[in-house]
Amino acid sequence: MNDQKELFRTGLKDSVAIVAGFIPACFTFGLVGKGLGLGSLEVFLLSALVFAGASQFIGIKMLAAGAAAPVILLLTLIINLRYLFISLSFGGQLNRNISYLARTWIGFSLTEEVYAVSMLTREKANPKSVNEKSNQPLELPYLLGLQIPPYVANLLATASGITLASYIPAFYLPALNTSLYALLIALVVPQLKGSLRNMAICISAAGSSWLLHPLLGNSSILVAMIIGMAVGSLFRVRVQAEKGVSL
């Protein structure tokens, strides 16, 4: 029981950076939704039920433009395909004893930031010895502590944005999102230090996204993820071969 409480507290501590990045972005979402003329309940439910960053902003813009529901759902599905890659990796890190109900919550509230933080601080999620920590799965108490605060912050910040929409000038909106980008950069940079493989993944994914964006638009992100995965897999094979590991 004490271990579970400690894991939960560790998750809460690790969630602070995510919450700090979510608040301005979700606040902006509430402002934008109301600024487009949507109802307060519509904007709030989009934030509460979708909880997927970019697709929320696209969804409210398409709703405001009068787009058909199937079109909005299809575009949202395409944009959120990135979570397929994230969840495939993340699911393999979970403790197998976690129930399906709990996994449903974990999957729903999984974001890029949660994934990055949990991978960076995975050793904090299990009170095992230092020599074993890299092989230990992520435990439910830790993930609850890590994922609940960002979701609550998402709801509160969205509600605040909706409430204060008529008082905030529109030209302030771009500045409110910079903290989320700064958070993502801060999570990625430590992974690049001392890791040639991670550096290769980052450069190949970022470079391909930049080069392909004029041709593919937002779909270039998905292609860039696949390219980054391919580069990382090849790099790993090369490292294993050098160590004499049979493939």
TrEMBL record:
Entries under Pfam families matching the protein: AzlC
Please give the name of this protein.
Answer: Branched-chain amino acid ABC transporter permease
PANTHER family given in the database record: INNER MEMBRANE PROTEIN YGAZ
Keyword Cell membrane applies: yes
Q: Which biological processes are named by the entry's GO terms?
A: L-valine transmembrane transport
As for membrane topology, the entry says:
Multi-pass membrane protein
InterPro entries from the UniProt entry: Brnchd-chn_aa_trnsp_permease
Q: Which keywords has UniProt assigned to this entry?
A: Cell membrane, Membrane, Transmembrane, Transmembrane helix, Transport
Q: Which GO terms describe its cellular component?
A: plasma membrane
As for family, the record states:
Belongs to the AzlC family.
Question: Which ranges does the record mark as transmembrane?
Answer: 12-32, 44-64, 71-90, 171-189, 219-237
Keyword Cell membrane recorded: yes
Name the major location.
membrane
Q: Where in the cell is it found?
A: Cell membrane
Which organism is this entry from?
Answer: Paenibacillus odorifer
